[in-house]
# Entry
Amino acid sequence: MTVSRTVCLGFLVFITIGTVLLLLPWANASGQWGNPLVALFTATSAVCVTGLIVVDTGTYFSPLGQGIILALIQIGGLGYMTANSFLMLLLGRRLKLKDRVAIQQSMDHNELAGGSSLIVSIIAMTMIIELTGMFVLYPTFQRDFGVGLGLWLSIFHSISAFNNAGFSLFADSVVGYALNPWVNFAITGLVILGGIGYQVIMELFLWARQQVQGDRRRTNFSLNFKVAISTTLALLVVGTVAFFIIEFNNAATLGNYAPHHKLLMAWFQSVIARTAGFNSIDIGAMGEASLFIMIALMFVGASPGSTGGGIKTTTLRILLACTRMVLQGKEDVLSYRRQIPPSRVLKAIAVVMGSGLLVLSATTLVSISNPTISFIDVLFESVSAFATVGLSTGITADLSDVGKYVIIITMYLGRLGILLFMAALLGDPKPTAIQYPEEDLLIG
# Structure
């Protein structure tokens, strides 16, 4: 039972438990037993922090069902190994070496030491950020829905946003708050923090504490921090400008709003496109150019060690650095005056190839089973499922049963990561002393 197999099985266990719970009459607003496919789809989407839905979460499920979905989102956002390790610590058990290795692999962490403190700090950081988001959202929701429902809406959307799940209790997501800066910046802030990665947040925290204490020593940020921050900022700016320009005169999206409102809505969709499934405009009404840009942003996704999916920002930067080095006639891959190990370069290539094949397979199967749906909509849905984003042009509920099962599998594989899933299938690599002769071949 390897680490990768443990993680894969752990997610399957939580999806199964969630499916059974969402089938219960008490979990459904109708008070009757739920639809098995709806329960499976919703549980998978929640555990894989995707946000794709086939029914309206706020009206189909009872408050208990919504609470179950929220619990699945929190577990899925933390990750199976983090949630399981935290439960072990609560029960007073110490983490074994295998548990620490599993945490290291599942979070892409570099060190084995301090497994217990790492888990505790992740949980504490998560609670602090989610509570902060709740307090920011509460005044608006309390004004519109009263004390009790306003509090529940604040809790639900804060946890959903930070875990990059994109689930909303509003039928139109947050379209009703498209012009509300508090809601917009609260949700985008939570999404960015959830998608930037634990290690980056901790480095930011340590730097801020150093500034508050008056320590003027130069902070040496890690290469992961520099790459994740710079790539995230670049993608946010590119997405905002692109959506602002392309959708500027589209009456179905931004066309009827003032320029500063258009900028706010373009910013919101640029943030959401990479990690979470909220929307403040009608995605299905966007032009094909905007949808294609959104597909590219979703495919890249968030940063390593975060609650988001995609191939990750660091993978994109490694491939761009490889391209730059080849064009310059150099063999070493450099970034910020640091040499990237060849093993990381090979992993980045494998991630992109595996992810591309997964998206290609999902798109083909969904297209075959749903011939009446346009290709761009199917591709958008498949990439959204793979990158655990949760955005949709509105076709999710209209998919055939076969198409829904394909999306379910794609969400599951996208949350695990294609390399981890292949490692679970193939097992740990066996050491070998064989070395083969080198031979050149033509490329390009």
